[in-house]
Amino acid sequence: MTSQQARYPQSDFSIHPDTGIGYLSLTVSSLEHQIAFYQQALGFQLRRQQGNRVYLGTSQRDLLELVENPTASRHRQVTGLYHQALLYPDRRQLARAVARIFAHQIPNYPTDHIMTKTTYLDDQEGNGLELYCESPEDGSWDLTSGKYITRRADGSLSSGREPLDVEALFSHLKEDDRLDTDLPEETRIGHVHLHVRDLPEALAFYHGILGFDLMGMDPSIGMGFVSAGGYHHHIGLNTWQGVGAPPPPENAIGLNYFSVQLPDQPAYDQVLDRVQAAGLATTEKENGALVFDPSRNGILLTSSD
Q1: What is the distance between the alpha carbons of residues 103 and 250, in angstroms, rounded to a whole number?
Q2: Disulfide: which of 40, 119, 268, 294 matches 262 by Cβ 3.0-4.6 Å?
Q3: 3-state helix, strand, coil in the chain (%, to 5)
Q4: Which residues share a beta bridge with 227?
């Protein structure tokens, strides 16, 4: 444990290592425009629709719930979603996704984080997206003594935010690869990154109560990461909208909640018991329990059972 980590409450409980992010729920102002974007630009399938609510994802998995509110609007300098991150199974599938958004002329920002290959973009209503694949063979990063450090496989230092060599990525494409296919079945939400009002407060919740392992933080840039099972991060936290930023108003475009999927009922019960023991209010949903972090970001606790 570093001296910086010692500043934050340390939990004697770790969330189950097979815990992951299930799906996100977003409020949108136009279902028509957002469905078209996610289907045409990214290959999401429309799985089902219930009134003003649709579910998108792969053929077997929900990744996104969109809830329409035609009067909703975008608000700045508030807490909420920074981005959702779609994890592709390999570089070839990421290359197809990036080539597809290039073909649709969607502004995006290809970035090489060394241990991941990434591009960033926004959907039609300004919700942030990251598309990435793992590339640990190229190097690693960590947050040591409060500093973000990235090393290439040869030991040399990197900023961890280098321009992605897009041509090298596209070299993984095959001549018969089509760009208009459905989202690969293995695609899932690898992590979410949130705007919070206070970093120590957020880490006390996600690490101290929910039990995500503290992977590191850099207070100088207001950023921290937590995860389950040793993954580099399932949840990113930052104060880039301002320390003390308020939650968005009720009638706002953006995050309703994201689901944290526990692998079985005992693992779910353990976390729910900790939430309730901390005196936090929960709302029972059909598929889990909804709780809010101190910045009013919603988390739906669910079980795979």
Answers
A1: 36
A2: 268
A3: 20, 40, 40
A4: 213
Measured at the CA of 280, the angle between CA 286 and CA 52, to 5 degrees, comes to 35
Structural domain spans, the chain = 5-303
Q: What residue has token string 């969109």?
A: 66
The SS3 of residue 222 is coil
Please state, in angstroms and rounded to a whole number, the distance separating the CA atoms of residues 10 and 107. Answer: 41
pLDDT, one tens digit per residue, over 100-157 is 999 999 999 999 999 999 999 999 999 999 999 999 999 998 876 667 889 999 999 9
- Of the candidates 57, 114, 88, 295, the residue with the CA atom closest to the CA atom of residue 195: 295
Q: What is the pTM of this model?
A: 0.94
Q: How many residues does the chain have?
A: 305
9 pLDDT more than 60: no
Q: How far apart are CA 93 and CA 177, in angstroms?
A: 10
CA 148 to mean position of chain CA atoms: 19
| Residue 28 falls in which region: left (phi positive, over 0), alpha (psi -120 to 50) or beta | beta
Do 149 and 157 contact (CB within 8 A), yes or no? yes
Distance CA 277, CA 123 (A): 38
DSSP class of residue 194 equals: E
75-103 pLDDT per residue, tens: 999 999 999 999 999 999 999 999 999 99
List the structure tokens of 165: 């060599």
Is it true that domain 5-303 has CATH number 3.40.50.170?
no
Q: How far apart (Å, rounded) are the C-alpha atoms in residues 129 and 231?
A: 20
Distance CA 115, CA 232 (A): 10
